[in-house]
Write a structure and sequence with these properties.
heterodimer; A: 111 residues; six-stranded mixed β-sheet; five-stranded antiparallel β-sheet; 11 strands; B: 116 residues; mainly beta; seven-stranded mixed β-sheet
C-alpha cells in the first residue's frame, strides 16, 4: 500500500497571515504529484501538477514546491483570505498508475 | 463547457435496492474515473476507463459494484444490492487521457448516496 500523508489534518489561520502544509509520499517510483483545493459542498478543483524534483508552481497567492528525493511537497498560501478556507488534497502517482490521495488538510481562515 | 455532469446529486435508497449513478465526462476527454469519498478512507479510486475500456478496477470493493462505459460520453456505476456501508459521496472525474499521470482531472459535483 502506497501511503500519501498530509499534515496537519486541520489548521486555523488568522486572515492576512501566511501558512503552509505538507504532503509526504514514498519517493521510490514517483511519477507525479497533484494538489487539489476542495471547498465544502463542491468538488475538488485542480491547483497544480508537478513532476520534477525542485519544481515550484505558483497561482496567485498559492504556491507549491516538490522534493522527489525525500518525498515531500509543500503548499504555501501567502496573506490568507477567507475564501482560502477549504480542504487541500494532495495525490501522488507512482509508475503512472493511479492517483493515491492523502486525507487532506482542512484550512480555516479566521476573519 | 458544462464540466463533468453527474446524476442524481442525491440518492436515498433502502438496503437491498439497486442503485445506478451516472456520469457524463467533459467532451473530448478520453479517461474517466469513479471515486468514492468516505470519512474513514477519504477519496479512493474505484475504477477508471481509457477510451471506454476499463483499465483498472482493483478499487471496486466487491462484486456488488459494477461500472460500464458504453460510449465516450456516458458511464454508469451500479450497486446491486446496496448496503448501508455503501453510503458515501461518489465522484466522477475525467481528463484528456494523453498522459494520465500529469493530466488534470476534472471532478463532477458528486452523488451523495444514503442507503438506509
Amino acid at each position: 500500500i502506497l501511503n500519501v500523508e498530509q499534515s496537519p489534518q486541520s489548521l486555523h489561520v488568522q486572515e492576512g497571515d501566511s501558512t503552509n502544509f505538507t504532503c509526504s509520499f514514498p519517493s521510490s517510483n514517483f511519477y507525479a504529484l497533484h494538489w487539489y483545493r476542495w471547498e465544502t459542498a463542491k468538488s475538488p478543483e485542480a491547483l497544480f501538477v508537478m513532476t520534477l524534483n525542485g519544481d515550484e508552481k505558483k497561482k496567485g497567492r498559492i504556491s507549491a514546491t516538490l522534493n522527489t528525493k525525500e518525498g515531500y511537497s509543500y503548499l504555501y498560501i501567502k496573506g490568507s483570505q477567507p475564501e482560502d478556507s477549504a480542504t487541500y488534497l494532495c495525490a501522488s502517482l507512482f509508475g503512472n498508475e493511479k492517483l493515491t490521495f492523502g486525507t487532506g488538510t482542512r484550512l480555516t481562515i479566521i476573519p | 463547457d458544462a464540466g463533468v455532469i453527474q446524476s442524481p446529486r442525491h440518492e436515498v435508497t433502502e438496503m437491498g435496492q439497486e442503485v445506478t449513478l451516472r456520469c457524463k465526462p467533459i467532451s473530448g476527454h478520453n479517461s474517466l474515473f469513479w471515486y468514492r469519498q468516505t470519512m474513514m478512507r477519504g477519496l479512493e479510486l474505484l475504477i477508471y476507463f481509457n477510451n471506454n475500456v476499463p483499465i483498472d478496477d482493483s478499487g471496486m470493493p466487491e462484486d456488488r459494484f459494477s461500472a460500464k462505459m458504453p460510449n465516450a460520453s456516458f458511464s454508469t456505476l451500479k450497486i446491486q444490492p446496496s448496503e448501508p456501508r455503501d453510503s458515501a459521496v461518489y465522484f466522477c472525474a475525467s481528463c484528456l487521457g494523453i498522459n494520465r499521470g500529469t493530466d488534470t482531472q476534472y471532478f463532477g459535483p458528486g452523488t451523495r448516496l444514503t442507503v438506509l
